[in-house]
Design brief:
single chain; alpha+beta; Jelly Rolls; Arc Repressor Mutant, subunit A; 2 domains; four-stranded antiparallel beta sheet; 10 strands; 40% helix; 20% strand; transcription; transcription regulation
């Protein structure tokens, strides 16, 4: 169940067999589930546990009093929904399931034990958190500077790259369970504008989207359109100096 997490952390450091076994040991925690479109934890709740997504997609969002919301992050398999969230007195955002989600709910003590006993895992987790912050900065740039076409294209390439890096996408194809309303809530455009944007991406033969499966027809052109630069995902083992010896 923790295969995606091991693949993700291996992007930042080469883990030893003992490191990988320690991560697999997290599976002793009872697996929890959340149905699509239900919260894993809501704004105002006291965060006691750290959540690790095993399967399905989840999102972080902020809700306004008038019912509108902004999705500010997607959590894919292998992602923690904030490593240190248990330090807060209360949640300042909501984490909800986009699809049916399976996840582990880890105590601070269990995670602390892992990071104390396996320093390379701890360092890789720190790299992962830095990448999460980098992704947030890139999303902010998209909202402030990219057009609707560029925003949607950039998000598609990012999600494909993240899924591919943990073995969940290949050959420019990926599961894409996000609704048009949710895409609008990510990219900051109206649902009508979002629909037109998707139609234009199809018209330009950049993507195909059918039955919650997305195919990127011309990855290079889509990257160019979105001004996508891979560097912000830091997938080239910048933590290689932390590599295990075995």
């Amino acid at each position: 169940m923790t295969k995606a997490l091991i693949a993700k952390l291996s992007q930042f450091a080469r883990l030893s067999s003992e490191d990988r076994d320690a991560i697999v040991g997290l599976e002793t925690v009872h697996c929890k589930t959340a149905r699509a479109h239900t919260p894993l934890i809501s704004e105002g709740d006291k965060p006691i546990h750290v959540r690790l997504v095993l399967s399905g997609w989840a999102c972080r969002h902020k809700d306004l009093a008038n019912g509108r919301r902004q999705i500010v992050a997607f959590f894919l398999p292998g992602d923690f929904c904030d490593l240190n969230v248990y330090l807060l007195r209360s949640m300042d955002h909501t984490i909800s399931a986009v699809t049916d989600v399976k996840y582990l709910q880890l105590s601070a003590g269990m995670l602390g034990k892992l990071t104390e006993e396996r320093p390379r895992v701890a360092q890789a987790l720190m790299w992962s958190e830095l990448v999460s912050a980098s992704i947030q900065r890139e999303w902010l740039v998209s909202l402030g500077q990219r057009t609707a076409m560029e925003r949607v294209g950039h998000l598609i390439v990012e999600l494909y790259t993240r899924l591919k890096s943990v073995g969940l996408a290949a050959d420019c194809r990926m599961a894409f369970p996000v609704t048009q309303s949710e895409l609008a809530e990510v990219t900051g455009v109206t649902p009508v504008h979002l629909n037109r944007t998707l139609q234009e991406l199809r018209r330009q033969k950049l993507i195909e989207l059918e039955s919650r499966q997305l195919t990127i027809l011309d990855l290079d052109r889509l990257r160019d359109l979105a001004m996508f630069e891979l560097g912000y995902l830091h997938l080239d083992r910048e933590g290689r100096h932390l590599d295990a010896n075995d």
